[in-house]
Specification:
mainly alpha, two-stranded antiparallel sheet, transmembrane, TgpA-like_C, transmembrane helix, membrane, DUF4129 domain-containing protein
Length: about 220
């Protein structure tokens, strides 16, 4: 039989006093044993429960001004996410594949055409809002114009990147713009990037700028191909 304060009885009935601090430490040591904690949730479960609780409180805070519960707030949150997704899709277009390297500039063109003919086709496509076709034809007009001025030598199998690199050596001030124009063409023609009026106008303006630019002599061994 125990006594208050940590006392106990010997077998002959005489009380034996146990210090209070020693009794407390013995009890704490006993409670540390795993058998008393085997049914408690683990660390991962406790973290998950805490995150879920915090998320639920946040939803309740959002739903409170609406006079609703966390379910109402969750519905509002889903609507907001859908609206943001739609806006992003309208602005940037559907996910696109990376442009294929090595696509030839005049692939699919209707036979050899002059720069003026390509420009006219580009303008016609732009007038009806067919921006992808307008970009293709305007880039072709740009390169054909360089060929007609002998900045580039005619080469049917040339890619847009090759044309930009070759022309950039003779027109160094426009080398960066030429490289950007080639990437734009590849993205639209082979990477399924949606084109727009701005893309077409960028190429048309570069075409006009190149027409007013005098090429520089190319060092031996670095001539146009």
């Amino acid at each position: 039989m125990g006594f208050p304060g940590g006392g106990a009885l010997l077998t002959d009935g005489a009380p034996v006093e146990v210090p209070r601090d020693a009794a407390r430490e013995a009890a704490q040591e006993e409670l540390r044993k795993a058998v008393y904690h085997q049914h408690e949730p683990g660390l991962v479960q406790r973290c998950y429960d805490w995150v879920r609780e915090q998320f639920g409180r946040a939803l309740d805070d959002i739903g409170a001004p609406l006079g609703g519960s966390g379910n109402a707030a969750l519905a509002v949150l889903l609507v907001v996410l859908l609206v943001l997704g739609f806006v992003a899709w309208r602005r940037y277009g559907a996910p696109r594949r990376a442009a294929r390297a090595g696509g030839t500039l005049f692939a699919g063109a209707q036979g050899p055409r002059s720069a003026a003919e390509h420009r006219a086709d580009a303008a016609a496509h732009a007038a009806r809002g067919a921006w992808e076709d307008a970009v293709r034809e305007q880039m072709r007009a740009l390169v054909r114009g360089l060929e007609e001025r002998t900045v580039l030598s005619p080469r049917p199998g040339r890619t847009a990147d090759e044309a930009a690199a070759e022309a950039g050596r003779a027109l160094p001030q426009q080398a960066t713009q030429l490289a950007s124009a080639a990437r734009l063409f590849d993205d639209v023609a082979f990477g399924e990037r949606p084109a727009d009026e701005r893309a077409y106008q960028l190429l048309a303006e570069l075409d006009r700028t190149l027409g007013r630019t005098r090429p520089q002599p190319v060092p031996a061994g670095g001539g146009t191909a």
